């Protein structure tokens, strides 16, 4: 279903994304019990944050305390969302699932089919013992990271700068606030597109060209522009 870094627990904050450290542990979580739940949408916001593993599976990353979903004990963080009202979601990205949930009419009941991860775990990779001197590329700063790509080979790159790290964090927070998703790779792409733009209009144009499928609202783009600007001048 998904992998976590450096913990065997179902901790969606530790979900394996597009990069890993050179000395990380990786733990694999496999499918467990399937369940079907009827949910009455009494409020516009269900209180869910959705993420995915980049391979067609969307998961519940966070449940807001006191929300509609929080009151349904059978639904848990880490559950894979298989379908909404019979519509198969395998192959959908997290933002697509979040939009489907948001578009469901208030005051109606809908059906979720979920699969929870098994409680047991399999460790699929162990801490590297380290390369021998001269056996491969050397990292001069000690801040190397292995970046995994859907197309092309994995590469060792430098970690983000302090500005990039803080800007990505702030944009990721905005993604959760506006869209109910967290995606550091998407946030990093937005920071890359916005770092040299002179105003929000230029950022909006760049986002439309590169990420037009998201149809970001104007107020979100303006807040992203502000977040990047704050990070540039050290207002964290």
Automatic annotation (TrEMBL):
Domain PDZ, residue spans: 36-116
Region (Disordered): 127-147
Entries under Gene3D superfamilies matching the protein: 2.30.42.10
SUPFAM superfamilies: PDZ domain-like (SSF50156)
Entry-linked Pfam families: GIPC1_GH1, GIPC1_GH2, PDZ
CDD domains on file: GH2_GIPC, PDZ_GIPC1
InterPro entries attached to this UniProt entry: GH2_GIPC, GIPC1-3_GH1, GIPC1/2/3, PDZ, PDZ_sf
Similarity-based family: Belongs to the GIPC family.
Protein name according to UniProt: GIPC PDZ domain containing family member 1
Gene: GIPC1
């Amino acid at each position: 279903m998904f992998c976590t870094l450096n913990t065997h627990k179902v901790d969606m904050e530790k979900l394996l994304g597009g990069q890993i450290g050179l000395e990380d542990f990786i733990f694999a979580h496999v499918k467990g019990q399937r369940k079907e739940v009827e949910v009455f949408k009494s409020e516009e916001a269900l209180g869910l944050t959705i993420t995915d593993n980049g391979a067609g599976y969307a998961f519940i990353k966070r449940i807001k305390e006191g929300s509609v979903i929080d009151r349904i004990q059978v639904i848990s963080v880490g559950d894979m969302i298989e379908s909404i009202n019979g519509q198969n979601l395998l192959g959908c990205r997290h933002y697509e699932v979040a939009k489907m949930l948001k578009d469901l009419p208030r005051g109606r009941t809908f059906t979720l089919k979920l699969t929870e991860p098994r409680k047991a775990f399999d460790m699929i990779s162990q801490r590297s013992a380290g390369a021998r001197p001269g056996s491969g590329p050397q990292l001069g700063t000690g801040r190397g990271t292995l970046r995994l790509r859907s197309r092309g080979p994995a590469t060792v790159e430098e970690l983000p700068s302090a500005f990039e790290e803080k800007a990505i964090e702030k944009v990721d927070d905005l993604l959760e606030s506006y869209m109910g998703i967290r995606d550091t790779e998407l946030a990093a792409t937005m920071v890359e597109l916005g770092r040299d733009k002179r105003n929000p209009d230029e950022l909006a144009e760049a986002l439309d060209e590169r990420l037009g499928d998201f149809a970001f609202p104007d107020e979100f783009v303006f807040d992203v522009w502000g977040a990047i600007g704050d990070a540039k001048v050290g207002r964290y």
